[in-house]
Amino acid sequence: MAGFVAVHTGAGNCIDETKYQRVIKEACIRATDILRNGGSAVDACEAAIIRLENCGYTNAGYGSNLCMDGSVQCDAAIMNGSTLNFGACTNVSRVKNPIQLARRICEAQSNPQLLERIPPMVLAGSGAERYADEVGCAMVDDSSLMISSKAKFQFNHYKSKYDLVVSSRNNKAASEEPVPVPDASNEVELAASLDTVGAVCVDSSGNTAAGCSSGGILLKVPGRVGQAATYGAGCWATDTDDLAIATCTTGNGEYLMKTLLAREICNGAFTSECAVTSLHKTFTQKFLDSPLLPQQQDLYAGALTLLYYPKQSSGEVMWSHTTQSFCVGYMATTQKVPKFVHSPLPTYSVPGRSCVVNGHNFHLRI
After folding, report:
1. Cβ contact 250:262 at 8 Å
2. How many separate helices (H) and strands (E) can be counted in the chain?
3. Spatial distance between the Cα atoms of 249 and 247, rounded to a whole number of angstroms
4. Residue 53, SS3 per DSSP
5. How buried is residue 183: exposed, middle or buried, by Cβ count under 10 Å (0-12/13-18/19+)?
6. Which of 213, 209, 241 minimizes the C-alpha distance to 227?
7. What sign results for the dihedral spanned by CA atoms 229, 232, 233, 238?
8. What is the pLDDT of residues 246-295, one digit of tens each?
9. How far apart, in whole angstroms, are the C-alpha atoms of residue 332 and residue 354?
10. What predicted TM-score, i.e. pTM, was given to this entire model?
11. Which residues are catalytic?
12. Which residues contact 345 (CB under 8 A, 6 or more apart)?
């Protein structure tokens, strides 16, 4: 059985990529083992993301960024390219692997409901957690068990900086003398730079799947919904006789949601003969130059995209980003070891204003 998988640990400014190299490779190995044993693209995609959620280094599942109130609230989504079913969850705190719940919701889209009820596509909060428990997802008794030491340290560090800024501004407003206000914005941005994790996959039948999982931005407002749970923004997958494509995104969640970047990437690929040209055009016209976004701000995004051509049994995996760097990995069932890539933005490019696109070809022996 043949197949191909690619994963990422978020687009940002990765200072030490070695921390993510091991878990990226492990996620690829787990997914390809499933594909070799006849598993589907959805099976492999879920397994890869579960490994990324469990490692404690990434901003997904265990280790997710904390909200302003110190709680953890996770988002996740998965899409099946062959059925076009989509499932997502948001603001879950006790689901050990949010991608597992998203997959259950996605599968239920094909199940007939009593009284012709329409099955849910996105579930949130306590309702999502009750559903997760009912369908057999792994749960934790206490949401604090989802908080890693890394996430707690970052929360304490940057929450204190945030409180200091607020206090200084209040003092300045109450006094006639100017009070210096610390600028913590750059450091907060660095702390939250590694965002959504994701995976894309194609199986021996030529079916694709895409998934993503995230704890959201550091110090986010409790209840915030990110792109990882938003239809068309966090992931997308579509299979046709000529082209099967899957993508997952990362970056400024609100901007990814306003532009529906995942869906735009896939739609663009169907109207272009060159994947590199298509991705660069989408990132430039639909994101960096989008009238929906504030042009005076730096716009950060990344995407991992898989294109598979069934008639040639071959494809391309592409990574594109406007951030300083992007850590990705990929592996075919024919490979003995996965490939890890730390993709930097070219030195002449400006983060948040420029885009880089790169990739690798692959062939499936079906």
Report:
1. no
2. 9, 13
3. 7
4. helix
5. exposed
6. 213
7. positive
8. 999 999 999 999 999 999 999 999 999 899 999 999 999 999 999 999 98
9. 30
10. 0.93
11. 196
12. 321, 322, 323, 324, 325, 351, 354, 356
